[in-house]
């Protein structure tokens, strides 16, 4: 086969964007040029590498194997470039991270000191829901991943870096807001506003409810912390959120934390990566920096 590095990068862009036009934009070429290069890739492989069905790109089995191989080649090449830069005394390179949405409240602070020490490093930060972060982890797309509930069916290098207390919030004028201690059962009739099924916060909450044999009478699922806080503030119900998702002065948002027995629910933030993955020099330095700041 005779496929160039640039063609491999184009094909990876196709796999990631799901469209020829998206791949063309990512590689800064015209769509006709991208289409021609992709045809050449298929001809070189000797099999179709993607199908167009209902205007959507679907990788064939050959295409999926090519994408996996191309990703491994690019990872190795990026690692080699970073090693050479290190030998030259340079600090260039790229750090790729995928984090769950709640981690956006603290990960930028952790990145801050690293960026100050290594201003030449490019950072690619994907902020997604847990399902999509786990998907990227399974596909080995990034250097490091931050989430509160790592998958248990993968062999991962796993480091707890920060506590993640989950608190129960209510409107600031809730009738229970002045109490010193509240039984969970006292909230039975409340509507509980929770993150979507599959999120780390929801997994911890559901586990806690099972342990307490507690089933809320009414539920409302919302897909973002901001939407949940707004819903609580306008008296749609009470909610369980990470303390990291709340401002220190939460009363300014029209909210309060209720002192419910069993709360805060204890959990931790984890930074993980596949144990078989060889971290790049940049990722190794960042992880060392991160663990030095860890307060699990």
Summarize the structure.
The protein is built from 9 helices and 12 strands. With 296 residues, the protein is of the alpha/beta class. The strands form 3 sheets. Strands 4-3-5-12-6 form a 5-stranded mixed β-sheet, sandwiched between helices. A 5-stranded mixed β-sheet has the order 9-8-10-7-11, with helices on both faces.
Q: Could you give the order of the helices and strands?
A: HHHEEHEHEHEEEEHEHEEEH
Mean pLDDT: 88
CATH topology of the largest domain: D-Maltodextrin-Binding Protein, domain 2
Q: How many strands, which pairing sense, and closed or not: the largest β-sheet? A: 5 strands, mixed
Q: Could you say which overall geometry the principal axes of the C-alpha atoms support?
A: elongated
What is the CATH level 1 assignment of the largest domain?
Alpha Beta
**What is the total number of structural domains?**
3
SSE layout and pairings?
Elements: H1 5-17, H2 20-27, H3 31-45, E1 50-53, E2 56-59, H4 61-87, E3 93-100, H5 107-117, E4 121-128, H6 130-138, E5 144-147, E6 156-163, E7 166-171, E8 191-195, H7 200-211, E9 218-222, H8 225-233, E10 238-242, E11 255-257, E12 268-274, H9 281-293
Parallel strand pairs: 3-4, 3-5, 8-9, 8-10
Antiparallel strand pairs: 1-2, 5-12, 6-12, 7-10, 7-11
Helix pairs in contact: 1-2, 1-3, 1-4, 2-3
Using brief descriptors, characterize the structure shown.
296 residues; alpha/beta; Arc Repressor Mutant, subunit A; D-Maltodextrin-Binding Protein, domain 2; 5-stranded mixed sheet; elongated
């Amino acid at each position: 086969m005779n496929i160039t590095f640039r063609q491999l990068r184009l094909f990876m862009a196709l796999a990631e964007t799901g469209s020829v036009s998206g791949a063309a934009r990512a590689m800064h070429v015209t769509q006709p040029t991208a289409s021609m290069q992709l045809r050449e890739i298929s001809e070189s492989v000797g099999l179709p590498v993607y199908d167009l069905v209902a205007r959507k790109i679907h990788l064939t089995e050959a295409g999926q194997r090519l994408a996996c191989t191309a990703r491994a080649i690019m990872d190795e090449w990026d690692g080699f470039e970073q090693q050479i830069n290190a030998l030259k005394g340079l600090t260039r390179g790229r750090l790729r991270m995928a984090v769950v949405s709640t981690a956006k409240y603290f990960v930028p602070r952790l990145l801050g000191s690293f960026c100050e020490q290594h201003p030449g490093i490019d950072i690619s930060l994907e902020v997604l829901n847990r399902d999509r972060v786990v998907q990227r982890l399974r596909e080995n797309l990034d250097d490091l991943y931050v989430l509160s509930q790592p998958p248990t069916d993968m062999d991962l290098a796993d480091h707890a870096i920060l506590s993640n207390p989950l608190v129960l919030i209510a409107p600031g004028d809730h009738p229970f807001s002045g109490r010193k201690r509240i039984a969970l059962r006292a909230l039975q009739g409340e509507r509980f506003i929770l993150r979507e099924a599959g999120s780390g916060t929801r997994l911890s909450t559901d586990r806690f409810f099972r342990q307490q044999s507690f089933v809320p009478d009414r539920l409302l699922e919302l897909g973002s912390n901001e939407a949940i806080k707004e819903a609580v503030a306008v008296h749609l119900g009470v909610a369980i959120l990470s303390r990291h998702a709340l401002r220190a002065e939460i009363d300014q948002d029209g909210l309060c934390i209720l002192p419910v027995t069993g709360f805060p629910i204890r959990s931790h933030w984890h930074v993980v990566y596949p144990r078989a993955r060889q971290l790049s020099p940049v990722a190794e330095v960042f992880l060392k920096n991160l663990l030095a700041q860890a307060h699990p």
